[in-house]
Specification:
The chain is an alpha/beta fold. Helices cover 38% and strands 20% of the residues. The protein contains ten helices and eight strands. The protein has helices at 3-12, 23-39, 55-62, 74-83, 123-135, 150-159, 169-173, 194-201, 222-226, 230-243, and strands spanning 45-49, 66-71, 90-94, 108-113, 137-149, 191-192, 206-213, 255-262. Strands 1, 2, 3, 4, 5, 6, 7 and 8 form an eight-stranded mixed β-sheet that branches.
């Protein structure tokens, strides 16, 4: 199958719209929104590239921001449209993160690239998506990019679920020395370490503002987090927000958020 076929099949059979409904899922969402809100201003114009079913786009539109959204998968666009509420200043078009030619240079104050890097499997495609995101962002604007973490996957799936000794992981997808994981479209998700991400952005006209682990411990104790009462969950979030920028810990996160400022 082609890459797009794998993605269509995945999202047509996965409830993306409820991914953040559990407490442990909310940690990633609340963390990402917390940092977006640190850098957004009243008149910010926003684009979300790879908006999926629109959780972030709709939340920001409901706060009064103008949001343009781009999504590749038709199934997700249908749900996005159903989720649109009256009064939201929001648009959704089908498009590819690798080609934003319908959008002009230097247009947006806030650019969200929170999904595409999960599914881009070559350095060339990853750099193209980042370059397009930077291009449509104004000088001084912010680019928020999400990635899936390599080492959380090694711990949780390869060891936690015994996949380390199963083909093709054993012989071709996991480096036996560095434990760097490779991925193909069949595995759906591309995995990265911080150094991979730094290499991708090195040649771009951007400055890194923050590098954050958006779910950290919640990815490992999800059942415990889901069972917390509201007081305990609030304390857990405070702990999470305290550690999520610590660079000695961030590598364990299942998801990363890279925050960049366009400098020219």
């Amino acid at each position: 199958m082609e890459t797009l076929d794998y993605l269509k099949n995945f999202y047509e059979n996965y409830d993306e719209d409820s991914r953040f409904s559990s407490k442990h899922g909310m940690v990633e969402y609340l963390t990402t929104m917390r940092y977006i809100e640190k850098y957004i201003s009243q008149n910010s114009r926003i684009i979300e590239i790879g908006a999926a079913t629109g959780r972030y786009s709709h939340a920001l539109a409901q706060k009064g921001y103008r949001v343009d959204a781009v999504e590749l998968i038709e199934h997700n666009i249908e749900i996005f449209k159903r989720n649109t509420k009256e009064g939201e200043n929001i648009s959704i078009v089908q498009g590819n993160a690798l080609d934003l030619s319908d959008f002009e240079d230097n247009t947006y104050d806030i650019t969200l690239l929170l999904g595409p890097m999960y599914h881009l499997f070559t350095k060339e495609d990853q750099q193209k998506a980042l370059s397009e995101a930077v291009r449509v962002t104004k000088k001084g604007g912010m680019i928020f990019t999400a990635y899936c973490g390599n080492d959380a996957t090694i711990v949780k799936f390869c060891f936690g679920k015994g996949m380390i000794n199963i083909e093709p992981y054993k012989s071709s997808l996991i480096d036996p020395v560095t434990f760097k994981a490779d991925s193909t479209p069949e595995e759906i998700f591309a995995l990265n370490r911080k150094e991979d991400i730094e290499a991708l952005t090195k040649s771009l006209p951007v400055s890194r503002i923050k590098f954050i682990g958006t779910d950290m411990a919640a990815g490992y104790i999800s059942d415990t987090v889901d069972g917390m009462d509201e007081e305990t969950f609030s304390s857990f979030l405070n702990y999470h927000f305290y550690i999520c920028e610590r660079q000695d810990m961030v590598g364990v996160s299942t998801h990363f958020l890279d925050i960049l400022e366009k400098i020219k």
